Amino acid sequence: MAAPMDKVAEHHKQKQICASRPAYRQGRRDRAVKVYTVNQESRYLLVQGVPAIGVSEDLVKRFALYGAVQEYRILHEYPAEEFTQAYWVKFDRLQAARVAKRKLDEYSFFGGVLHVSYAPEFETVQDTREKLGERRLLIANKTRGNDRVKQQPTPSQQERRKPQASTSTSTSILQTEPSHGTNSSYQETFPPVPSEVETFHALPAPPQHQWYHPAQHHSQWDVPKVASKQGVYPLGYDARLSVQPPNTDQSNTRNRTPTDNQAEDSRPLIGPQLPSKDQSGGSNEGATGQAVIRPDLVPRQVLAGRKRPAPPGFFGEALEEEKDSKGEDEEDNDLQKTSCPDTGSSSMNRTAIFVRQKMRQISQTRTMSSGGRSSRSGSSSSSSGSSKSTTRRRI
Amino acid sequence: MFSSQEYLEKKTGPSGVGRLQYLQSLVTEFQDTDKEDCKEQVLANLANFAYDPINYEHLRKLNVIDMFLDSLTEENERLVEFGIGGLCNLALDKQNKEHILANGGVDLVIQCLSSRNEETVLNAITTLMFLTTPASKPAITRVSVVECMLRFQLSKNSRLSNLATVFLEDYCSKQQVEEARQAQAGEAVGITLPSAPQET
């Protein structure tokens, strides 16, 4: 959408600086006498006086300091001084264009002085509409704040009317009817400010919302809210507010299979991808791989050293007659109650356990000299193969 | 875009002239001076102050809105231009709007539509848009105004035609536009150029 370029528009021309201002109102910079309204301003800028020495990129970079530049062109047919060019720059936002114009007008650039002016003639109808709408919103936002703060000078009636109008103008950008019909509904939702408050204009309004208190909504699996909506927890970070202590019932712990443990611990966890944990039920480490202090957990090594009656099935061959009834549990009991370190493979574990049991029996037969024991040992040796098979009933 | 109170205080410093006082001295100069260019300068200065809502309270207190309205009837075209510019900047605030409407601002602004100055006309169209309320809408969208906008829409000046299009599309009902078109078609005189529109 190009404006006719044969005649330079008036607002592109640089006006004469006013020299006759009295000192008290002479600003820091010399300026012409000019009024800027929303109509004069635009996202589109015209930059004249750019030296024609191939500085496009530098120029655009300079402008882009103040905001995103959507587009730019060199206007070859625009009447320009010798050795200078005129550029057409389109900003993403009006505010950026305003700042750029203020800062870069009369700016010395590669030996030439830039003359930056707005170019609203390049706007489309929609651009103009949006520009006016933005101005409306800005004023509505600004004046809404003013009305609430300044309660003293204005009577309470006007207070109520002003916020209504400004909120309604902010919501309806183009419909310029600050619908007076909504008066009553607004008053219903926001009760009028009592007259006593007028004397304390500095006090903020009482809170009307129940803000989120992290301490209150606290379930075990509640994830604390991240400050930003786009926030992501780093990998491996445990965001749980509290970690569920393990089930202190010993038998339950031991009866669980490793797969059960993993499933139960990882299922309700709403959090980042956790490193896979070691599959031993009595592990001291928590589900995260980080050391989590669980006072109820005691290392297996300590347990094994305690003087306790051996749990059933600990000595596989010694309690052979009970194997049938406890076949299911035995396997797990063997794996989890023995003091041998976990090698990571169940078959290796079983082998290690069997070997250790064997060693214990041998040491027992040596210490004992009774026939019962020897018969047992005999039976043990003969039944070693069968015990091996029975203890390994569950494959 | 706008100044905040802290920024103003920082800029003036502890012994500087405050904003209200400065505006007061501007208004005083405007009333006391005889020189035309001083009046123009002061009026333009005030109109630019009217851009920032932080000044609205001060401007209301100093009756600057009335000053702008009065300047619309001046002979000096620049005074009219700056006055309508100031009104355009002010008109979106609710209180200012009420004040302008209460003091017959609509008619004064509509008169500006027939100015020869491009900026005056553009600011006048925008001011009419900003002044639209359910109460003022019938006056603002009367047939003569809509006719005028239809003419502006055909102008080669894209700023003018854009604003006229926005006015017709967003602030007038289709019925009103139709009425105006028919009224225009019935006129003996052809479509006049916007540079010298003669409003009835």
Structural write-up:
- The complex is a heterodimer of chains A (395) and B (200).
- Chain A has 395 residues and is α+β, with helices and mostly antiparallel strands.
- Chain A is built from eleven helices and six strands.
- Helices cover 36% and strands 8% of the residues of chain A.
- In chain A, the strands form two sheets. In chain A, strands 2-3-1-6 form a four-stranded antiparallel β-sheet, with helices on one face. In chain A, strands 4-5 form a two-stranded antiparallel sheet.
- In chain A, strand 2 and strand 3 form a beta hairpin.
- Chain A starts with 43 loop residues before the first strand and ends with a helix.
- The N terminus of chain A is likely disordered.
- At the A-B interface, helix 3 and helix 4 of A face helix 2, helix 3, helix 6, helix 9 and helix 12 of B.
Compact overview of the structure:
The complex is a heterodimer of chains A (395) and B (200). With 395 residues, chain A is α+β, with helices and mostly antiparallel strands. Chain A has helices at residues 56-64, 94-104, 125-149, 156-171, 183-189, 250-255, 258-266, 300-305, 327-337, 346-367, 371-391; strands at residues 44-51, 69-75, 84-91, 108-109, 112-113, 115-118.
**CATH topology grouping of one domain in chain B:** Leucine-rich Repeat Variant
The profile of the biggest β sheet of chain A is: 4 strands, antiparallel
Fourth-level CATH superfamily of one domain in chain B: Leucine-rich Repeat Variant
For the report, how would you describe the main beta sheet of chain B?
A: none
- Element pattern of chain B in H and E: HHHHHHHHHHHHH
Global morphology of chain B:
elongated
Can you write the helix and strand succession of chain A as a string?
EHEEHEEEHHHHHHHHH
Strand order of the largest sheet of chain A: 2-3-1-6
- By CATH reckoning, the class of one domain in chain B would read Mainly Alpha
Assign a percent range to the helix content of chain B: 55-70%
Number of helices of chain B: 13
InterPro entries (chain B): ARM-like, ARM-type_fold, Armadillo, ARMC7
Protein name (chain B): Armadillo repeat-containing protein 7-like
GO biological process, one term (chain A): RNA splicing
Protein name (chain A): RNA-binding protein 48
